[in-house]
Amino acid sequence: MNAPMTVPDDAPVDVPDSRAAFEARLRAVGADRYHDKHPFHARLHGGQCTMAEVQAWVINRWYYQSRIPMKDAALMSRLEDPALRRIWRSRLEDHDGGLEAGGGIRRWLRLAEGVGLDPAYVASGRGVLPATRFAVDAYVHFVREAPLVAAMASSLTELFAPAIHERRIAGLLEHYAFANPETLAYFRQRLNEAPKDVAFTLAWVLDNARSRADQDAAVAALTFKTEVLWAQLDALWHAYVAGNIPPGAWRPGDGGRG
Amino acid sequence: MNAPMTVPDDAPVDVPDSRAAFEARLRAVGADRYHDKHPFHARLHGGQCTMAEVQAWVINRWYYQSRIPMKDAALMSRLEDPALRRIWRSRLEDHDGGLEAGGGIRRWLRLAEGVGLDPAYVASGRGVLPATRFAVDAYVHFVREAPLVAAMASSLTELFAPAIHERRIAGLLEHYAFANPETLAYFRQRLNEAPKDVAFTLAWVLDNARSRADQDAAVAALTFKTEVLWAQLDALWHAYVAGNIPPGAWRPGDGGRG
């Protein structure tokens, strides 16, 4: 474990931050750049989204949800320590669920159904914005290829997720007829799951990013991840709020329940 | 070589298209989806862009230019035939130039300087939109990982490039004070280089995509590539025309010549 250490202001740049200062740098990334500050979320949680905009969000964010367990499998494929793999495996269980039921992916498709979409259409991934795919795939590639400290740190956006999930649940329940405990089960369940994941991962990153270069790579990885999230909402806004839908992407009215 | 063949309308879907019909399918992707139809290009070529918008385009498209020779190296790393590698190598030469001079990358930085940017800033890649990086990196990953016919076919957007380069040269010369033979040298040179590249690659794809599945994969790869190009302009528009610049990206006034 790194003991807290005091670094003078004029320290050479390659001296690592103290554990507390490093954690503060990581948390500052969220304060500055997490997508809770994106205008699309204000619009969604404040009840200003049309149902077509909500549907577009559900379709596109499905792609992100669908890649999370693939991202976690990519990370596990790099972990030599069975103890670490056993811990990380709970994320696969949380997202994929059991053979017949459960899991965040199935819960997301209940939301899809609740907003009037055919779950099979959403699950097909057809109509997802290319920009969504590029951003999400960049995350999967990053976790597959980056140094392990950076790959682990990129999941630390979960530090900031519970607050936005709570605001989302409240905002959707207040403003949209489709919102109920069944359709919002994904978000409620994440409130139970994310804290254990992120507590483990934060401690692991704080313990294992020992050099200044490691710490900088962890901060850069978390920044990259906020860019992955932000870019998805920018693309959603440009296509479905500003009305510039690119060739081949979902158009309102398509993909409904038959 | 595939001889032209006649396929009846009720043919099973796994019968390959004739060479001519397959080529027509590839060309139709450009007619439907190439980024010559994106509103940003109408704005750029018609003289409606502000200088800040032109600068944002130059900064972001730099990232694409900078990754093209890396993409070509990735492809060459997969080519077992020395004859094919020798032919493909001319693309590296075209883009990277010699040790001291020449090459598309250096010509792009002359454009950067011409529009009032510090070439070193542009070359650093700082300020590039995350969405640009995600789209361009998706292309590099695709060429590294996709079946070879698809990887080759993804470069066939060059079939459609000369027409847009000619319109661009004319439009920029007509509307912008920065435009002259020196700053536009990149585009003029591509008019000389692209036809030989694309003639070779088109023939190679027509010869080597022998099954219907290969042909479908080639069409899908070319479609994917048009999405890579289109998504870059969507991101540019959202950030710099609509004015929603994401955290960390270039802001007008930064990166100028000192």
Task: Describe the overall structure.
2 copies of one chain form a homodimer. Chain A is mostly helical and 258 residues long. The first copy, chain A, has one domain (24-241): Heme oxygenase-like (Heme Oxygenase, Chain A). Helix content of chain A is 66%, strand content 0%. The first copy, chain A, contains 11 helices and no strands. In chain A, helix 1 runs parallel beside helix 11 (212-241). The longest helix of chain A has 30 residues, at 212-241. In chain A, 40% of the residues are buried. The mean pLDDT of chain A is 94. The interface between A and B is medium-sized, with 29 and 29 residues.
What is the structure about, briefly put?
Chain A has eleven helices and no strands. Chain A has 258 residues and is mainly α. The first copy, chain A, has a single domain (24-241), classed as Up-down Bundle (Heme Oxygenase, Chain A), CATH 1.20.910.10.
